[in-house]
Amino acid sequence: MAFFKDSLMAWPAKIRFSVGAKSWSRWLLTAFGFVIIVVVLIGFYWSREPASFSVSQATNEQLAATGHEYVVGSATTAALISAGQILLDKPGGYLSNDKMPPGLYLDNIPNWEFGVLVQVRDLSRSKRESFSRSQSQSIEDPDLILSEPRFHFDNNSWLFPTSEGEYREAIAYLKSYLSRISDPDIADAQFYARADNLASWLLTVESRLGSLSQRLSASVRQQRVNTDTAGEQGAAQSTPSRAEVQVKTPWLQIDDVFYEARGATWALMHFLQAIEIDFEQVLEDKNATASFRQIIRDLEASQRNVFFPIILNGSGFGILANHSLTMANYISRANAAIIDLRSLLAQG
């Protein structure tokens, strides 16, 4: 009888505990779901590609910070600085080295960042080795000596030191270089707008665009003739290969290549706009202004909005579109025009 009474008195407490546990579980699940929704929405916002910027306006703003007027090389340097700043300060900041969501699971923008970074690295190296030197035996600029290797720092480092920290230091040295070349009282900092310097950088651009075009075209399976040693009778390679090779970008990497190309063409578009300003006289002398502007137009076309949430990979002549082949078309046209432009610049 006593046992029955004790059990009866204990029921309300057990019921209260059960109801309280269910309330806490429901609250925790609701909070967790809310966090997931917020993270996903932030991820969508961070996945937006940065808009293009005005090279002329960026040049004026960078020069205003130095207190000097425009000189040859100001536009190219300002465009390089601005591209680096957007890379670091866009919504979400620099995402390639993120270890927490939503940056952890995003891959489109990190690939876009890598495409931009490759173009920034190439131009910074050309500035150090070519644009800032009068000849091969001249001394390298001290600011560019410190800036260029920092842009080549590991793009995935998140701690001790961070990629962002290294790139910000590189930008700081570029700003110092811009201040020095625009200061009329300083003669040891120069930017040389010559046809041979421009052709040297365009050779690197040509190689990058050719690689991107091939990788984009491989979004659909292709049977290609091996031309690795074609054109030279004595050419050799380390290991033998077949006369024909089959290429196909893995399905999970198709959007990665696409967004890397988007980032590369975004940066290159702005750099060429700056080059058009700094090399205006060179391009006019070579009667190459129209050809140069057409290259920029093709790169601008590659930045059109993608009106679909995923990167489609149709067969090319099938029902669905193939965004990679469309991008490859614009890049190939720009690359062919650059090859012609380099030939034009080499003429006397």
Overall number of structural domains: 1
Question: What is the count of DSSP helices, taking H or I runs of 4+ residues?
Answer: 11
Residues in β-strands, percent = under 5%
Task: Give the proportion of residues in helices.
Answer: 55-70%
What is the averaged pLDDT score? 89
Beta strands, count: 2
- How does the overall form come out from the CA principal axes? globular
Name the strands of the widest sheet in spatial order. 1-2
Major sheet, described briefly?
Answer: 2 strands, antiparallel
Low-confidence stretches: 1-11
Q: Which structural category fits the helices and strands?
A: mainly alpha
Rg of Cα set: 27 Å
Distance, first to last CA: 115 Å
SSE string, helix = H, strand = E? HHHHHHHEEHHHH
Folded structure, characterized:
By secondary structure, the protein is mainly α. It has one domain. 62% of the residues lie in helices and 2% in strands. The protein has a two-stranded antiparallel ribbon with strand order 1-2. The longest helix has 45 residues. The termini are far apart. 33% of the residues are buried.
List the helices and strands and how they pair.
Layout: H1 2-46, H2 55-66, H3 74-89, H4 108-131, H5 142-151, H6 163-181, H7 195-217, E1 222-225, E2 244-247, H8 254-278, H9 280-285, H10 289-301, H11 323-346
Antiparallel strand pairs: 1-2
Helix pairs in contact: 2-3, 3-4, 3-6, 3-8, 4-5, 4-7, 4-8, 5-6, 7-8, 7-11, 8-10, 8-11, 10-11
